[in-house]
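User:
I study polymers; will you set down one protein's sequence and backbone structure tokens?

Assistant:
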Amino acid sequence: MNEPLFLKAVLQEKIWGGTKLKDVFGYDLPSDKVGECWAISAHPNGPSTILNGPYQGMTLAEVWEKHRDVFGNAKGDVFPLLTKILDANDDLSVQVHPDDAYGLAHEGELGKTECWYVIDADEGAEIIYGHHAQTKEELETMIREGKWNDLLRRIKVKKGDFFFVPSGTIHAIGAGIMILETQQSSDTTYRVYDYDRKGDDGKPRELHIQQSVDVTTVPHVDAASDIKTEKLENVEITSYIKTDFFDVYQWKITGKAAFEATAPYTLVSVLEGEGTLSVEAGDYPLHKGTHFILPNEIKNWSIDGTLQIIASTP
């Protein structure tokens, strides 16, 4: 497979969603309450479809299952990563995700470690990141007594910020924030608090207090940050994070930039601009909102144009 795999995203309606995925990226939305674009996904709750080449019309999950050579014969039952764009028109629920051991034992799927690149944020917008409890007992007491202002850590954010959110971290994206999220391929979320909102059925949305207490890291520890930027010919590469689950980079391209593969395959999302991707098999137009995978056979490529890209590798 010497062509990139371009992907058709899956759009997910959410109680807290809005219209920015159309306004900013031009996606055709089913309603004005779309919260998530599952851009590169093999998860059964929203698998992306291949748009080009010999696997056109297949889902990413099917290609992973039947053509593992595309991914360098990588191990694992499931495609490990999921790239999303989230439009938080309203506050998301306060939540926490399990690690792999708890997720597999209790939910039958991987846990969820994730990271966020802030595409845009309204003035004064905030996230919830971590908590102030010192013991599990204190955490559970504060949750059950609803002492949210004492418990939750709030952080103001701006465009271009980056946050690593390991499993066990209490977190929430606040209203007015748009992010690109790189995460493990998991849809297990434990809600700690949801502002007493009601779902489409008119009933309060389900909370998962016991599971949340079980999996939350206590006391909270801020993830270490080791962001590095290097300037090469016509590209500035920022390395945001290297973990057991994913490495995440930003490529700021101005002109023609050459790249070499550093992993069996690479996930790519264009956040700004337009240009051309060139591989041995040919040239492919890129524009804001394009998502694709560079398979194992493509060891070298170039991108020409003015673009801002977030890339990740397993």
Observations:
- The helical segments are 20-23, 60-66, 100-107, 136-144, 148-151, 209-215.
